[in-house]
Amino acid sequence: MALSSPSFVLLAVVFMAAQVILSAGYNKCVARNFGYDSVVCECNSTYCDSIASVTLPPLGQFSSYLSSMAGSRLEASQGEVQPKSTGGGLRLTIVPYQKYQKIRGFGGAMTDAAAINILSLSAGAQEQLLRQYFSSEGIGYSVVRVPMASCDFSTRLYTYADTLGDYNLDNFTLAPEDIKMKIPLLQRAQALSPRPLSLLASAWSAPAWMKTNGALTGKGSLKGEPGGKEHKTWAQYYVRFLEEYAKHNLTFWAVTTGNEPSAGKMTNYSFQALGFTPEEQRDWVALDLGPALHASSYPHTHILILDDIRILLPHWAKVILSDVHAGRYIHGVAVHWYWDNIVPAEISLGTTHHLYPEYYLFGTEACTGWNALDRGVKLGSWDRAEQYAHDIIEDLNHYVVGWTDWNLALDLNGGPNWVKNFVDSAVIVDAKRDVFYKQPSFYSMAHFSAFLWEGSQRVGVSASGETHLEFSAFIRADGSVVLIILNRSSSEIQFEVWDPVVGYIPSTAPAHSLLTLAWKTQ
After folding, report:
1. Looking at the annotation, which residues are catalytic?
2. Tell me: the pLDDT tens digits for 434-477?
3. Homologous superfamily assigned to 61-101+457-519
4. For the residues of 441-500, what is the DSSP string, one character each?
5. What is the CATH number of domain 104-449?
6. Where are the domains of the chain?
7. pLDDT tens digits along 240-294
């Protein structure tokens, strides 16, 4: 074929166009259907779909990003802001003078299981996966929750101080899971991230010799009383953990007072747990953990109480935060999403915020597939993505400043998990094929994490009438506006957005879709 032939010219144009698209970050989803209501996007060592550029168009235009059950994945488009209303249908009005909480961030957990799965991939696929979460072309994760020693998503039971009676923690040592897996991956994630990661530590259990039941699992609390030697040693265990991770240039924004304290107190939990009543947690913070951190090299590390289901609010917060001795060491209240539908958010989160507005609310754990009636991995489940988006919007609209997914990556079974408590994850790894699948819930997280930068402030938004749409609006530090809209109904909904600063934005939310709109105001 002659080099000047029309066919060659056409091929050259197509090739150059493809290169422009790829370099602009518009890699398309390689969709795979596993028989559920939507698709996953398959990634390997050389290719993964990417989020479209989140650079906003000039004043007078807006960007739109769509994900849907029908298969759209952060599909980008742009439109013109209109000077006049279309005159009919639903209107969402931005109310910029109604100002609420500022965003801290979004992220997931680097459990042992997550690390095992990421490291089961080839070097190229590992890099792709980490870039999807943490790099500047990824979805903007800025929070990583790190279990202190083992949890259910480990392959064995261990703590960092398993030597009987080691009250001085002379034999405290990080585990191979930390040294060989979690720490190197956290360092790589930090190197990819354009901003410092906010690391959050949570412990599942104290060493068995410190506990009333002599075991890491089941119903058991610390021996003795707050202020006693077991309680003081447990507080120093936190300090030692921070010291050891700091040796690897990893510092923590916050620690929680322990994962799901109600489980170790009220139920015979099948996996690692440490029971506290709110009164016991209050006194341990006031007498032991607070003073220990304050006297350490990490006095500015935040302490978050609860780290459990929000059904326990506002009671748990009242007991602890009304106490001046404990309250002075505490910064926030950590909540999990399980059983959220039992108690309205306004009663739990809203009441807690209104009683104690100086303490922030932060979501520290969520996953689907945990319920016995709907267990494990569902590759391509849009319904689960909607569950995430609904809960995040509800939390944000009730003063929560961030939301943390559970495992960053799991295998096809939803593990590994030593107690076989298999669940779902935003990323599922198939090590045999050296691929990973980005679930619909990955994109559900992206609609928030990629757009709500730290410091974004929630503002008022009102609807002109009853609607199935769920929504939350924010003004970012640069003055731009982000509006996130969820349509869980089976019908397309047309609407317009009125921002009194810039004008009217016509839009449509397809059936079963998640939409992020963003525009400049100056």
Report:
1. 260, 365
2. 999 999 999 999 999 999 999 999 999 999 999 999 999 999 99
3. Golgi alpha-mannosidase II (2.60.40.1180)
4. HHHHHHHHHTT--TT-EEEEEEESS--SEEEEEEE-TTS-EEEEEEE-SSS-EEEEEEET
5. 3.20.20.80
6. 61-101+457-519, 104-449
7. 999 999 999 999 999 999 999 999 988 778 899 999 999 999 999 999 999 999 9
